Structure formats: structure tokens, C-alpha cells
Amino acid sequence: MTDINLYGRVIITANIKAITGLHIGGSGTGLEIGGVDKAVIRNPLTKQPYIPGSSLRGKMRSQTEKVLGLAQNNPIGQNVKIHTCQTVGEYNAKGGCPVCTVFGVPANEKVSDAQPTRLIVRDVSLTPKSAEALDNANTELRYAEIKTEVAIDRVTSAATPRNLERVPAGAVFGPAELVFGIYEPADYARLKTVIEAMQLVEDDYLGGSGSRGSGKVRFEKIKVEARGRKDYSNPKTFQSEFESVQALADAFDALKQWLEINVPVE
């Protein structure tokens, strides 16, 4: 078995602003009585909506799979498939599958030699400012609004209303934290997959009902830090704050060179 060496980590933090109402579904238990068919996920202690790291990471992964045209060959639960390399040779082809290397491979004997997952994505809470604003807002539910959607029978024109709970447009979650591990020299370039996945999420949607207007988000106040293993307790900051993913993408060549110096693989 190949030795595993963690040379350091890159930490990208950012706020996530809801440009349109955001619905990431949770359990409807206790809320359906009030007329909500689809409730948002909430922290059980604070009752505030949040963005699960699994939802953000899953969207980043699925968008990357689509833009690369990768086969959806691995069933996960019911009616969901993701891409997974089926052999070590496929995984290692052309320097490593971008999806399976960055986002990881489910337990699979055929790719048992796959390296550690590079990307960790944390849950994202509302910022204190947004939480206070929503708590004081005149919305139908605490921290949330109700959007009524109507399904129309194409033959009879009969209408069936359904209520969707959403975090209102303008709410800000943050800071989101994306942690990327550096295990080999190729990882410097692989970080670009993460940045492009953030852009893909912005251009698509997060959560449900995206084709009907919900879930448009934007990453703001983006910061990049690095911790090298030789001085792990002393983080280094790359340039200043970035106001958009595009601005960070435009600086990627400089970021890559900076990482090679501050998180050396040696």
C-alpha cells in the first residue's frame, strides 16, 4: 500500500447569498399541520434554516460530473446515481479522475487503492445579521416564507396548490468552509476543480424547485488560507478577499504558484 502524506490544507471560506428564495428540504414533521407541504431543513436547537455541507458538496459533484460528461453508473439510494470509477486503471487515467479524486469514491473493492478524498464541505449557518433580520421580518413562518405553487391539469384545468417553505431572497449563510487536502503535486491543479464547481453551482441552483425559480445563490467575500504541515498552526492568507468566484478563478495561476511555495510537497 502506498504511504499517505498530507502536506497541508487549503481552506476556502465564503458567504452564500440567496439571490432567489432557497429551499433545501427537511422533515415536514410538525410543519405540515400548518399547511406546509415541503419544509426547509432547520437546526433542531435554534430552528434556523441552514445549508447542509452534503447538499452543497453533492451539487458541486453532480455539476462537475455533468460538465465532464461522466457516466452515472453507481446507484446511491433510490432513483439517484453518481459517477464512480470502476477500476483502479480508470481512476488513475490521465492523472486521476477529477470527480473521484476531489469528491471521493464510495467503498468499492475495485478501487481500494484510491487516495483520500480531497474535499471536505461543512454545514453553513445563517449569518447572525441575516438570522436577526429574518427573525424580525413579517414572514409566514419564522426565518422563512411560504411560496404557493399551483399544478394545473392540462385537460380539466383543475388546480392543485402546494405550499413550499423557502428562505427568502437576500438571506446570507456563512461563512461556508471548503477544506481541500494536498497529498501530491497534482493537487495544486486539482483545486481548480473546486473553484469551477462553485461557479457551476452559481450558474445552476442549490436545493429544490430550481427550474421554477428557487435556489439561485452567489458566493461572496471569498477568502483563501493555507496550512503547510511544517508549520501547520501558522496559516497563510492568499491575497485579499475576493468578491466573486470569477475573480478567484482569474487569480488561479497566481494561487497555484503561491500554494507550491506555502504548501510544498517534499
Structural class: alpha+beta
* Major pleated sheet: 5 strands, antiparallel
Distance between the termini: 19 Å
Query: How many structural domains does the protein architecture include?
Result: 1
Low-confidence stretches: 29-34
Radius of gyration: 21 Å
Query: What does the overall shape look like?
Result: globular
What is the overall number of helices? 7
Helix content: 25-40%
By DSSP, the count of extended strands is 11
Q: Estimate the strand proportion.
A: 15-25%
Order of helix and strand elements from N to C terminus: EEHEEHHEEHEEEHEEHH
Main sheet: which strands, in order across? Answer: 5-9-1-10-11
Q: What integer is the average pLDDT?
A: 89
Question: Could you please describe the fold and organization of this structure?
Answer:
The protein has 266 residues and is an alpha+beta fold. The chain has one domain. It has helices spanning 53-68, 88-92, 98-102, 128-136, 186-203, 245-250, 252-262, and strands at residues 8-18, 50-51, 74-75, 81-82, 119-121, 124-125, 145-152, 159-166, 172-182, 217-228, 236-237. A hairpin with a 5-residue loop joins β3 and β4 (81-82). The model is unreliable at 29-34 (pLDDT under 50).
Question: What attributes characterize this protein structure?
Answer:
single chain; 266 residues; alpha+beta; two-stranded antiparallel ribbon; 7 helices
Chain-wise SSE layout:
Blueprint: E1 8-18, E2 50-51, H1 53-68, E3 74-75, E4 81-82, H2 88-92, H3 98-102, E5 119-121, E6 124-125, H4 128-136, E7 145-152, E8 159-166, E9 172-182, H5 186-203, E10 217-228, E11 236-237, H6 245-250, H7 252-262
Antiparallel strand pairs: 1-9, 1-10, 2-6, 3-4, 5-9, 7-8, 10-11
Helix pairs in contact: 1-5, 5-7
